[in-house]
Amino acid sequence: MSKEKFSGVKGMNDMLPQDAAIWQTVQQTAVNVLERYGYQEIRTPILENTKVFTRGVGEVTDIVEKEMYSFTDSMNGDQLTLRPEGTSAVVRCVNENNLLYGATQRLWYCGPMFRHERPQRGRYRQFHQFGAEALGMAGPDIDAEMIVMLNRIWKELGVGHVRLELNTLGALPERQAHRDALIKYFEANRDVLDEEAQRRLYTNPLRILDTKNPDMQDLVNAAPRLLDYLGEESRGFLARMEEMVSAAGIDYTINPRLVRGLDYYNHTVFEWITEKLGAQGTICGGGRYDPLIEMLGGRPAPGVGFAMGMERVIELMRECGNVPTRTQTDVYVIHHDGDAHVKAMLLAEQLRDRGIRVIVHPGTAGMKNQMKKADASGARFAVFATEDELAGGNVSVKSLREGETSFAEQTTVSLESAAEAVANAFAK
Ligand code: ATP
Ligand code: MG
Asked: What is the per-residue pLDDT for 303?
């Protein structure tokens, strides 16, 4: 037999059982909030035809240029990609199933995404996004509602202060005028541009504003601002959204350099940022993408959405000392072998009928050994199904926690009433 012990794939993490509670808390809290705004779940496959993403994310982006896990299906030659993000896949699904015919959609999704990046804190090759898309609604009320909804999620997760940055990408003609001005400006400063910026100068100059290169910061700080090219309608859109966000008591800053860099993003863009996670401090990004649905083959309809990075939100909860824990079980059943074991199993079923989490000691072992396991399980009560007790038609129950008032002393109860008695102790 081979003795090789295998490792997981670099940049892709296991979720261990001790982390289950925090993952479930984040997802359940987010879902619970979104349901209060009328959102429903949607699930799409992890694989899509590559075109969905080259179209839906854009050719001249980090994701499509260098981060996608793409391969040819050896069975039929199809070009496939592990999804690097959710929006394009959701829009593909909505179009394919005509979900916007005479309707609007409020959708959420949660699941793994794949990007071939350099793994580091807060940046993985498989990571998880919780996201939402509001489709068929032109805004700006929906954009504002999305921000209010996210603010509620942070509050209910107890993650402390998360900063909101807002910007607008305006409408296409405004962006074109700004783009021309940007190209002119960068052409005049060509010597300062790095290789990537040179390459993007004519394909996606907006994205240059997003550079992390320290040598280019002065240059991009002084670049022409889209805000100065906005017409009345775009200004009105932004102003109305700001009004609603402010009315909800949410602080924000306008960051003119916040872009998503694609031609079909318009109006609202936003990010939620924390200072507690170092360089990877953006826990959520989103924006409006009105032209996207049509670009992916659907009837024209507006859309706006967000995606939050689950790993980053979870790490933030840890930084805030807000780590929910959950024991493995409520009741541990200790028993003798033979008929007692069968009775123990049936009693456990009665407890589970009442919603109680029960572990019946597996196999046979001495009482002392079983007690140790019961203590380690985190259970609140131990039930003893011993031959002696069962001979009198009874079992006994004992609290495993200090300060517990029910069954503080080991107490004998009839086998018939045991499930009810334990359930009553939980109800207290
Ligand atoms: P960044 O600038 O950090 O690369 P991005 O613009 O690529 O982020 P989006 O595509 O907007 O990120 O994804 C939304 C959110 O998903 C991010 O704000 C972040 O919280 C999370 N995220 C993105 N990439 C990763 C990754 N490789 N590992 C973990 N989380 C990620
Ligand atoms: Mg990225």
From this structure: 97
12-16 contacts at long range (C-beta below 8 A, 24 or more positions apart): 12/124, 12/125, 12/126, 13/124, 13/126, 13/311
The reply to whether ligand 1 has any atom less than 6 angstroms from the CB of 282 is yes
What letter does residue 123 receive in the DSSP assignment?
B
Note the pLDDT tens digit of each residue in 354-381. Answer: 999 999 999 999 999 999 999 999 999 9
pTM of the complete model = 0.90
Per-residue pLDDT tens digits for 184-203: 999 999 999 999 899 889 88
Which ligand sits nearest to residue 280's alpha carbon? 1
Q: Which residue has the tokens 């290169």?
A: 213
What is the secondary structure of 40-99 as a DSSP string?
EE----SEEEHHHHHHHH-SSSHIIIII--EEE-TTT--EEEE-S-SHHHHHHHHHHTTT
127 CA from centroid of ligand 1 (Å): 9
Distance 277 CA to ligand 1 centre (A): 13
- Ligand 1 touching residue 287 (CB < 6 A): no
Residue 191, H or E segment: none
Residue 261, pLDDT > 70, answer no
Does ligand 1 come within 6 angstroms of the Cβ of 307? yes
Token couple for 396: 């006994």
CA of 245 to the centre of ligand 2 (A): 27
State whether the beta carbon of 205 lies less than 6 angstroms from ligand 1: no
